[in-house]
Design brief:
The structure holds two protein chains of two kinds. Chain A is mostly beta strands. Chain A has no helices and ten strands. In chain A, the strands form two sheets. In chain A, strands 2, 4, 5, 8, 9 and 10 form a six-stranded mixed beta sheet that branches. In chain A, strands 1-3-7-6 form a four-stranded antiparallel beta sheet, with no helix packed on it. The N and C termini of chain A lie far apart (about 35 Å). By secondary structure, chain B is mainly beta. Helix content of chain B is about 0%, strand content about 55%. Chain B is built from no helices and twelve strands. In chain B, strands 2, 5, 6, 10, 11 and 12 form a six-stranded mixed beta sheet that branches. Chain B has a four-stranded antiparallel beta sheet with strand order 3-9-8-7, with no helix packed on it. In chain B, strands 1-4 form a two-stranded antiparallel sheet. In chain B, a hairpin with a 6-residue loop joins strand 5 and strand 6. Classes of the chains: A mainly beta, B mainly beta. Chains A and B meet through strand 4, strand 5, strand 8 and strand 9 of A and strand 5, strand 6 and strand 11 of B.
């Protein structure tokens, strides 16, 4: 079946502009995660959605970052007033949450964000 | 907080030979999961192998196997009969085994190059 998809693949923006990154999880997966991969910080957790529960936003680096998940499926990560330090690859992952078990997270191809 | 350490930033191996990538972690948890992911230049993070901490038997997936030493908090990946397609960045990752969703904590990565 189809894997996790992300769009756009690459995004170049100017400092101070807002950007939206999209993630389509694997069909039927109830859990969705956003991570950021940058040269200086490695791979960092940003936010986690599970079904209709309140998201875990503890990894968001500042209030310029927000994310939503509509209808328990597609998620959008929004970065307002982008800064050069926001330049990174943003990875999305999804997993299914079977009772009594913990499923593996499957990743999308990422969005490379470049802030000029 | 959990930490994951990969002490080998780069490694190389000849095609058809065996290579071992090291990973150590620190946690006070007793129930957790460990993963190896590979990330080729395409950026797609691909699951290589998964180990549940409660299982004493080391996980294997075809040419990939792990040496899980729970007391030493060590989780190394052995790649047998290395192939050119194994060239990638390899990440070791830790996930807590709580009932609710849990983020992955990644190591810094090891760049593996398989030479012809």
């Amino acid at each position: 079946g189809a894997g996790v998809s992300q769009s756009p693949s690459n995004k170049v923006t100017e400092k101070g502009k807002d950007v939206e990154l999209r993630c389509d999880p694997i069909s039927g997966h109830t859990a969705l995660y956003w991570y950021r991969q940058s040269l200086g910080q490695g791979l960092e957790f940003l936010i986690y959605f599970q079904g209709n529960s309140a998201p875990d936003k503890s990894g968001l680096p500042s209030d310029r970052f927000s994310a939503e998940r509509t209808g328990g499926s597609v998620s959008t990560l929004t970065i307002q007033r982008t800064q050069q330090e926001d330049s990174a690859v943003y990875l999305c992952a999804s997993s299914s949450r079977r009772t009594g078990g913990k499923d593996t997270q499957y990743f999308g191809p990422g969005t490379r964000l470049t802030v000029l | 907080a959990q930490t994951v350490t990969q002490s080998q930033p780069e490694m190389s191996v000849q095609e058809a030979e065996t290579v071992t990538l090291s990973c150590t972690y620190d946690t006070s948890e007793n129930n957790y999961y460990l993963f190896w992911y590979k990330q080729p230049p395409s950026r797609q993070m691909i699951l290589v192998i998964r180990q549940e901490a409660y299982k004493q038997q080391n996980a294997t997936e075809n040419r990939f196997s792990v040496n899980f030493q729970k007391a030493a908090k060590s989780f190394s990946l052995k790649i047998s009969d290395s192939q050119l397609g194994d060239t990638a960045m390899y990440f070791c990752a830790f996930m807590r085994g709580e009932t609710s969703g849990s983020r992955l904590t990644f190591g810094e990565g090891t760049q593996l190059t398989v030479n012809p």
